[in-house]
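Notes on consecutive records. When two proteins share a document, each keeps its own sequence and its own token line. Never mix them. Below: protein one.
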Amino acid sequence: MQFREQGKKIQCIRSFYDPVSKRSRQKLVSAFDRYTDKFPSVEVAELTEPERQELAVWFEARQAVKAERLNQKRVMSAAGTLVELAQSIRATGAAMTDSEAAATWGALSGVAKALRKVGHPKPKRESLAVVVVLGQADLLADVVEPVGGVTPSSSMGV
């Protein structure tokens, strides 16, 4: 059994030997929509049981590849989608209901868990380092300690 994608259809082609011409011949046995997501049971009624099983294995493998491609597309566009979501929330934040906000927080939590589970921990925030500009005076560098190490008492009002 051969399966050929032809335009908007998938064709099921049976090969058989023709003793008259002493050659192998092909016959189109069945065809169904290329974009279907469910196994086509009505369209493949003319297939034998082994051919139907072969089609089922082929169709399942095709669906697995299709799902993997869709998952890859979602992963590749996830950051952009989240950026767009943030912009939309900022633009119409008051229009969001409490249940929609709770569902969004839950979904974000699920994304964080999934990222951690596959080995992508949350990146550490970069600490804000003190930047010293050349020529800028340090105000506390010139402070002199009190004479004799005496500190004013709290009763002096200082």
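Protein two starts on the next line and is unrelated to protein one.
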Amino acid sequence: MSTALVVGLGNPGPQYAATRHNVGWLAVDALAHRSGASFKRHRTGAEIAETHLGAPPAPRAVLAKPLSFMNLSGGPTSGLAKYFNVEPTHIIVIHDELDLPLGTIRLKRGGGDNGHNGLKSITKSLSTKDYLRVRIGIGRPPGRQDPADYVLKPFAAAERTEAQIVIDEAADAVELLVRDGLESAQNRVHVR
């Protein structure tokens, strides 16, 4: 893969930092930490870190955290794709997924947004669904709790260790995607 644009979805602000909806941001932070990259504000409305993922000669990547709220992630994503001349097929979006249990990661290209407003915004702004996705399972809310409230809550104390593990595994999955491609990465990630 030539330059990859890796977009972690989340909401800006300290009140959202450790919430389920921000696992995409947390995975991008983990990737930046591994490579020693630091984020800087970019004119497209995102924080970015330019780095290489993995050992040399590792592929170049632009790690991004849109500073718009989740529902407006498409504008910064599209702006970064244009600025860095990255085709949609080389964009990797990391996001939370209600329909997967906590601790599960699934990789795919394209597909629907499943009610995820961040994906809906990105698909609209890119005019295509043909980008890669790293779906991080956060599970369904208990009882009758509204999913919109559930995703904006921090992980429960009993879930925090597993949440950190799955965030690190999502970072691993991104490195596999960039280095080996979708099919090979799926073969390794989906067996866990």
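For the record: The mean pLDDT is 92.
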